[in-house]
Amino acid sequence: MSLLPEQMAPLSTLWQHPAMIEFRKLSDNHPDLAHSPLVRGTLLTLQYVRDHGSIGLTKTKAFKRVFVHWAVEHFEWPGKSAEEMFRYQKVINEYDFPPLELLHFLLISLRLGRHYKGEFRLTKRGAELGDRPGRLFAEVIPFFVLQIDHASYARFDDRPVGNWEVWMNVINVEANQGTTEAALFETFYGEPQDWHTAGWREMAAFSSCVLRPLDWAGLISEVREGDLGSRVCHVFKTPLWRSAIRLETDAQLTPICVQ
Fold first, then answer.
1. What ranges do the domains of the chain cover?
2. What pLDDT tens digit does each residue of the chain (259 aa) get?
3. What is the CA 93 to chain-centroid distance, rounded?
4. What's the CATH class of domain 152-249?
């Protein structure tokens, strides 16, 4: 069953917004916004509703399959290409495409859209942001990264120990010229865990609740190599991170070497 907005973490349980993380304002034509899958998917959804009037909803208030299939084909979501998803199943529901399920929740929570008589429609505010990627980034990304309980839509309920002020300030330095998922985990928790060790659940919680939100926001990129037993996940800050984020550890950064 699709996870409805009211079934996800209520606003009263959202994580506190850290005071020492500043998101810079970006112009609507800023080129680095292209790095954000979530901004791209949100823009496409808002524009689709504007052009078609609405998106049909199922009885459980999920997006109907005709739009889900359109989203799979047009979002170009990293790791979830249309070719890959349709290779294994011909019929895809909203809950089969987690980025869309999350985006649906965000649109309702931020009052960019609403459910009305079996349809999803834009609010006035949502319609205004359909062509404003810079403003949309400011509305969606800080809320998504810093305030959502990311364990509420992860495979497991485990939550990593820590907070966004610590995670982002450390990643700012450690991933400045690239690092790995395992190296970051060891930096934070002092244990060399990975997906093939006894601590894989702790690694999964860290990956789901810290790295994946940053990846979906477009602030980091993850490059995976090897098979499941020996997989290595490389982590890099994107140009969008450098353009949009201001942190206390910025003064510790060394210049990036360009070959």
1. 28-148, 152-249
2. 334 444 444 333 334 444 478 999 999 999 999 999 999 999 999 999 999 999 999 999 999 999 999 999 999 998 888 888 898 888 999 999 999 999 999 999 999 999 999 999 999 999 999 999 999 999 999 999 999 989 887 666 788 999 999 999 999 999 999 999 999 999 999 887 776 777 778 888 999 999 999 999 999 999 888 765 567 889 999 999 999 999 999 988 876 655 5
3. 19
4. mainly alpha
What's the whole-model pTM score? Answer: 0.87
Residue-wise burial string across 167-201, b where 16 or more C-beta atoms lie within 10 A, e elsewhere: bbbbbbbbbbeebbbbbbbeebbeeebbbeeebee
CA–CA dist 117, 18 (Å, integer): 38
Helix locations, the chain, DSSP H: 37-52, 65-75, 82-88, 98-109, 124-128, 133-142, 164-174, 181-189, 200-206, 212-217, 239-244
Q: Two tokens at 15? A: 């994580």
